Amino acid sequence: MPNRLANETSPYLLQHANNPVDWYPWGEEALARAKAEDKPILLSIGYSACHWCHVMERESFENEETASLMNERFVNIKVDREERPDLDAVYMEAVQMMTGSGGWPMTVFLTPEGKPFYGGTYFPPVDHSNLPGFPRLVTAISDAYRDQRGQIEETTKQITDRMGQTNQLTKSNTLLTVDILHTAYNNLATSFDYQNGGVGMAPKFPQPMALELLLRYNHHGFSDRALEMVSLTLDNMAQGGIYDQIGGGFHRYSTDAYWLVPHFEKMLYDNAQLARLYLHAFLVTGRPMYRRITEETLNYVLREMTDPLGGFYSAQDADSEGEEGKFFVWNPEEIHAVLGEEDGNLVGGYFGLTEAGNFEGKTILNVPQELTSFAEELSLNLEQLEAKIERAKVSLRDVREGRIHPLLDDKVLSSWNGLMLRAFAEAAAALNNEEYLNAAIANAEFLVNTMKPEGRLLRTYRGGEAKLLGYLEDYAFVADGLLALYEATFQQRWLDEAVSLADSMVELFWDENAGAFYDTGTDHESLVVRPRDVFDNAQPCGGSVASDLLLRLALITGNQEYTVKATTPLRALHDLMGKAPAGTGHWLAALDFHISSPKELAVIGPRENLATRQLLDTINGRYLPNKVVVGAEGLLDESTQIPLLQDRGMVDGKPAAYVCQNYLCKLPVTEPEDLAQQLAS
User: Fold this and answer.
1) CB proximity list for 523: less than 8 A, separation 6 or greater
2) Interatomic CA distance for residues 63 and 73, integer angstroms
3) Which 3 state secondary structure label does DSSP give 453?
């Protein structure tokens, strides 16, 4: 018989709807029962693509005896961390305090008031490797709550008194200088893997924000080595198993240092950030491979991760048929069955296919050597070989589609959609791709019309229902994506929506005392602590994107209050940014924007005019991370509220571009060559 999770929309919660555990979603009903019956709460937090979450479900939550024990002794609550990042952040901090580490599945034991007193991550069904078996743990915790109430209360007090202190900020008048970037670069360079690329050793995460910082550092002329570090990493990732060589898109991380064996789940936020990173690397280097990876990643999202209404889905699982990676791996017989013996041997050689395999007897396709080297080795025509490989990839993908697919987490999250919206908008402008622009517009329409039906941005959507109040990251990421769409289209509507969200963001989340944003709004339910994450992790934190967004909007709108709100947390974090660049990558991007004297660009002219498009191509075809772009079709309305457009127009009837920087404007230009010269200076 289904439990209460059957009424939820989260695919992760629905996975547990038929467990014999009497699961509740987080909410007043569960909390009220815990108080009424004086029972502790067993809180389990995970997400749909989490491999060990599935393992713990099979071992414990589907076990009748374990479930009976849980039901008898606890009020059991299941939470999707992607829907409720606030609860995840609050209780992850507690678990890390208690154990020194954290992760998912996360298991936390709470008082009826929601105060944590014990926790951990995965627990096996029986004692194993210094971990207590879950049934034994549940029994011990329940007994302790009954018999040692005074000690439990003391523990909860100690924990809750410390919670929230980690991310407290203190206002500072520290000058923001380029020295912070130099320190950050030196720390990244020290921990860089110069053999395989990336920061640190196994397991190896892509860390796109750190690599974006290196691109910026090289762009300023500070270090050629910074670009070499980026290229080494991007090359090895693109040729490794972490990249889906057949379908496009990146898996979550590599279990080894070589980017070969991934954890096979695919997350929307990873692919949004990596698509942008490869696009930026293409703009810097002109290398076709980087453009190809950008396009294949975005095409994968369009093909497999896009809702008919325009939203982007959250994730694809690592497991299918109960096995991690089964959907993605191959053996020679399967390849030959699709391509024939001759082409099968050729394509198999290119993708490192062997009889022994490299993953549990099968092969994760990868590219041991670049196509050029492979062609030379076999004395084959490069163009013909490239065409053959591309045809083979399409054939293999078509056959792979017939396999049992990993679970698709088809909920739509506002924040992750904002990240992908920016990726599509930037790619549309830089690559002149109409399909990407249409995808970006459809996504923006969905976010504006469906995710904020009554003005308050909501967090999650699935099955026709949008719900849960949006968090700081939702407001910041969506507004940032809309701003990118404005810069790609010059449609005033998108700028207006971005400004409106930014203003609401300040109203709902700004903490004047600390000079920083909270993660939850003033209208959010009260939790043990009000969370504020200051670290950029797998995705940027809401605060860092908020600062970056407000700095850009300040230049476009002239609202200097945005600058104050953006720079105050930057000053508070100046030491942390230099010392911990891997955890503050997007903060450093915002800092770089602020101290670099960004270029303020205005383009006036009909967008269908060839001369206008050439001016725009000159801007969008360059790597210019610290810029804002505004535009108008020609004759300006006197009521325009954009300072960069005021008193601007075409020149002698020709579309014109205006370049301003550091309170100085250059003469307007009408020729792409002249604009290129101004942009380079």
Assistant:
1) 456, 469, 508
2) 16
3) coil
Count of C-beta atoms within a 10 Å radius of residue 248: 25
pLDDT tens readout for residues 567-579: 999 999 999 999 9
pLDDT for 449:
97
Q: Quick one: tokens of 73?
A: 């002794």
DSSP 38: T
Is residue 170 within 8 A of residue 532, CB to CB? The reply is no
Q: Are the beta carbons of 25 and 14 closer than 8 angstroms? A: no
* Closest by CA position to 368, among listed 259, 230, 279: 259
Tokens 């939550």 sit at which residue?
Answer: 61
pLDDT(16) > 60? yes
d(CA 175, CA 418): 31
465, 307 in Cβ contact below 8 A?
A: no
User: Amino acid identity of 218?
Assistant: N
* Bridge partner list, 262: 254
Question: Which segments of 362-471 does DSSP mark as H helices, in order?
Answer: 371-378, 382-400, 414-431, 434-449
Structure tokens at 194: 């110069």
**What residues pair up with 599 in beta bridges, in sequence order?**
627, 661
Q: What is the DSSP code string of 213-239? A: HHHHHHHTTS-HHHHHHHHHHHHHHHH
Question: For the segment 431-440, what is each residue's pLDDT rounded down to a tens digit?
Answer: 999 999 999 9
What is the Cα–Cα distance from 93 to 166, expressed in whole angstroms? Answer: 9
- Which amino acid, residue 25? P
d(CA 180, CA 570): 11
Q: Is 201:257 a contact under the CB 8 Å cutoff?
A: yes
Residue 314's closest CA among 545, 88, 82, 485? Answer: 82
Q: What's the pLDDT score for residue 459?
A: 98
CA-to-CA distance for 432 and 436, rounded, in angstroms?
9
Q: How far apart are CA 475 and CA 271, in angstroms?
A: 20
Mention every residue, 6+ apart, whose C-beta is less than 8 A from residue 578.
179, 180, 183, 184, 187
Cβ–Cβ < 8 Å for 311, 461: yes
Q: Provide long-range contacts, Cβ within 8 A and 24+ apart, for 330-334.
A: 330/362, 330/363, 330/365, 330/396, 331/355, 331/357, 331/361, 331/362, 331/363, 334/399
The CA angle 3-7-10, to the nearest 5 degrees, is: 105
Alpha carbon distance 630, 571 (integer Å): 29
Contact 561, 604 (CB under 8 A): no
Q: Which residues pair with 312 in a beta bridge?
A: 306
What is the phi/psi pair of residue 665, to 5°? -120, 140
Beta bridge partners, 24, equal 77
3-class SS at 179? helix
Q: Could you give the 3-state DSSP secondary structure of residue 515?
A: coil
Catalogue all structural domains in the chain, each as residue range(s) with its CATH number. Answer: 4-162 (3.40.30.10), 179-320+409-595 (1.50.10.10), 328-402 (no CATH), 599-680 (3.40.30)
The angle subtended at Cα 200 by Cα 247 and Cα 300, nearest 5°, is: 15
Residue 647's pLDDT is 85
7 half-sphere exposure, CB direction, 13 A CA radius: 6
Instruction: Return the closest-CA partner of residue 188 out of 578, 576, 534.
Output: 578
* Tokens 């002219």 belong to residue: 605
Going from the C-alpha of 610 to that of each of 606, 607, 622, the distances in angstroms are 9, 8, 19
Return the number of other C-beta atoms located less than 10 Å from residue 161's C-beta.
9
- How many angstroms separate the Cα of 54 from the Cα of each of 265, 405, 533, 551? 13, 16, 27, 42
Q: How remote is the C-alpha of 493 from its chain's centroid?
A: 25
Residue 130 has pLDDT above 90, yes or no: no
Nearby residues of 30 by Cβ (< 8 Å), 6 or more positions away: 24, 41, 75, 77
